[in-house]
Q: What sequence folds into this?
């Protein structure tokens, strides 16, 4: 069990640029989640996948955000035309597949939009 | 609707003293409740979880929490604080496929 990994760990970009983050879940986990954490707040749910199917998206996920999990393994989160308000920690988690199962979190990708 | 309220964004206790972090929840479905800890520059780590098996839940590092349905509470305690307990603690509500986090309590340990 190598844990959930996320890349990059830090990203600085200019407003208007596109960014993409990657998450590699624990290998046998079929559920993958994305959360966003801003300073002084708890993480907020963005979206989740069961295998390759995206089952739910938060209203926080504007049309500039898109997430994929093409083969049911790793996932990518892309933000197009970044805005300063997108600056946050983006967290990925994975679990075995029911709502009572523990979600294991990665270290996060910290995004700063200048 | 799902919501979690953590009372006290900052709590300070002396080393060796009791730690009590308060959490209340609101849920329209049977809740699953978790406490996660976040150490500086590290990811979220599970401390303990309640999934309806037993109301008193024991976790790692000497922490425990008691589920009280009548009070809709899930307070976290530790009998004797250690310097290494300094971190951000999140009470988290599950039960509808995603997690709902409280705003967190930063625990400071006074030597």
A:
């Amino acid at each position: 069990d190598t844990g959930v990994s996320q890349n990059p760990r830090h990203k600085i970009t200019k407003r208007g640029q596109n960014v993409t983050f990657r998450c590699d879940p624990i290998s046998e986990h079929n559920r993958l989640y994305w959360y966003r954490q801003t300073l002084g707040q708890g993480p907020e749910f963005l979206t989740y996948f069961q295998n390759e199917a995206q089952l739910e998206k938060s209203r926080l996920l504007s049309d500039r955000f898109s997430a994929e999990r093409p083969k049911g393994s790793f996932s990518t989160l892309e933000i197009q035309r970044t805005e300063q308000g997108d600056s946050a920690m983006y967290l990925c988690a994975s679990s075995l597949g029911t709502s009572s199962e523990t979600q294991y979190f990665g270290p996060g990708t910290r995004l700063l939009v200048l | 609707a799902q919501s979690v309220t953590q009372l006290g964004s900052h709590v300070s206790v002396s080393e060796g003293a009791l730690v009590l972090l308060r959490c209340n929840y609101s849920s329209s479905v049977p809740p699953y409740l978790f406490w996660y800890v976040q150490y500086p520059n590290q990811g979220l780590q599970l401390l303990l979880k309640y999934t309806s098996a037993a109301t008193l839940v024991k976790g790692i590092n000497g922490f425990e929490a008691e589920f009280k349905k009548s009070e809709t509470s899930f307070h976290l305690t530790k009998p004797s604080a250690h310097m290494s307990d300094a971190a951000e603690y999140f009470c988290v509500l599950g039960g509808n496929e995603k997690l709902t986090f409280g705003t967190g309590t930063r625990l400071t340990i006074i030597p």
Remarks:
- The interface with chain B takes residues 4, 33, 35, 40-45, 48, 55-56, 91, 93, 99-100, 102-108 of chain A (CB under 8 Å).
- The two ends of chain A are 36 Å apart (CA to CA).
- The mean pLDDT of chain A is 93.
- Chain A is about 0% helix and 50% strand.
